[in-house]
């Protein structure tokens, strides 16, 4: 139980770090490069995902003496599938909230990110992408 809570906490630190990078890239692309915020979400999502994958692989889901169930390429492939769907969920949620509730995209994005991160990303990364070999 304690190990699961510790893993969850590390995953949230990793997610937050990748999310900060993602969010600021989105702001930079939208506000300064004048790219539509939906496209900026995709660009930021890709860059933030690289940060998140690196942290998760080396720190969050690694245990001493244990290896992952899958090769690095398979980890990357599975992670990429999660990221693609995560970006779709984030872009769709942000668009819907921004369009129908009339909240600035910067705020609707934060709300959407929290929901997608906790419900979708963590569970798939822990149980599907970064599966560990059983000892």
Describe this structure in words.
With 135 residues, the chain is an all-alpha fold. The chain has one domain. Helices cover 81% and strands 0% of the residues. It contains four helices and no strands. It has helices at 2-32, 37-60, 72-101, 105-129. Helix 2 packs antiparallel against helix 3 (72-101) and helix 3 packs antiparallel against helix 4 (105-129). The two termini are 17 Å apart.
Short description:
This protein is mainly alpha-helical and 135 residues long. It has one domain (2-129).
Topology:
Elements: H1 2-32, H2 37-60, H3 72-101, H4 105-129
Provide the descriptors you would attach to this structure in a database record.
mainly alpha, 135 residues
Low-confidence stretches: none
SS class: mainly alpha
Mean pLDDT over the full residue set:
88
Shape: elongated
What is the strand tally? 0
Total DSSP helices: 4
- Intertermini distance: 17 Å
What radius of gyration results from the CA coordinates? 16 Å
The largest sheet is:
none
Q: Could you estimate the helical fraction of the residues in percent?
A: over 70%
Q: What percentage of amino acids are in beta strands?
A: under 5%
